[in-house]
Write a structure and sequence with these properties.
Length: 262
């Protein structure tokens, strides 16, 4: 694994050591304060080159273009709200996606299935254990965003999201979020509307570098990636873990996200 990630700087395989314990404590503090933590330089430069060289031709030749109009909830209607409520305004998300079964020999899957990585994430998220998905399409995806494409405003369904930025664009592609914009007890529709209308004073913007690991709590934190500009695509991989084994997407979800079942 040393040839893929910088374990000297990020000792995720030595959680019983003082360095490992300090790292877990820092990640927990960052999650509480910022809703995320970032490991810049997590992937080695040569690993980034190797991974991108492997996935770029697949993205170009055999990816699924996922394009849809949606609101921040990915729902057509919300109980108690009129269909024309400002919180339900729509925008477009567009990218190209490839699935784990299309890059079976990539370092992405070596890292995804590496047990110390899951143990580290479980420790930070205070879970007894985390498990890879049994879904051979959804477990690990690589997504590419070209000029004009974007991941628009949304809340995540999962408690946390694990991503690795493989290639940064020439311009655009910034990660923007408003932390804890809602809760289980308070949907905060007024706050959501303020965000959508560009009036949220709590909005934060990050410009991540290639090789950065980002672990993010997105269930109640609205977030997006701004439109890409320039000739170079933004390429990112999303690694999905759950606190129970055996998780798979439904056939309908697979069709919606990937254009096929598997």
């Amino acid at each position: 694994m040393e040839r893929i990630i910088n374990l000297a700087e990020w000792p995720i395989d030595r959680l019983d050591s003082p360095e490992g314990q300090k790292l877990v404590a820092k990640c927990k503090a960052d999650l509480t304060r910022d809703g995320m933590f970032n490991f810049e330089g997590f992937l080695r430069a040569e690993a980034i080159d190797r991974i991108v060289a492997g996935v770029a031709p697949i993205l170009k030749a055999d990816s699924f273009t996922h394009s849809r109009r949606h609101n921040i909830y990915f729902k057509k209607q919300i109980d108690g709200l009129p269909a024309d409520h400002a919180v339900l305004q729509e925008f477009e998300t567009s990218n190209r996606t490839i699935c784990a079964d299309q890059f079976p020999d990539s370092d992405i899957l070596r890292l995804y299935l590496w047990e110390p990585f899951r143990v580290f994430l479980a420790a930070v998220m205070e879970k007894e254990a985390l498990y890879p998905m049994e879904d051979k399409l959804a477990c690990a995806n690589v997504m590419s965003y070209s000029k004009g494409q974007a991941l628009n405003w949304h809340f995540d369904r999962s408690e946390f999201t694990t991503t690795l930025l493989l290639q940064a664009p020439d311009a655009g592609g910034d990660f923007q979020y408003s932390q804890d914009l809602r809760s289980d007890d308070e949907p905060n529709y007024r706050g959501v509307v303020r965000l959508l209308e560009g009036e949220d004073d709590n909005l934060r913007t990050l410009h991540l570098k290639a090789g950065t690991l980002n672990v993010f709590r997105g269930k109640d934190t609205a977030h997006r990636v701004t439109p890409i500009d320039g000739a170079q695509d933004r390429i990112i991989t999303v690694l999905s873990y759950f606190d129970r084994p055996g998780v798979v997407f439904s056939k309908e979800e697979q069709i919606g996200f990937y254009g096929r079942t598997g």
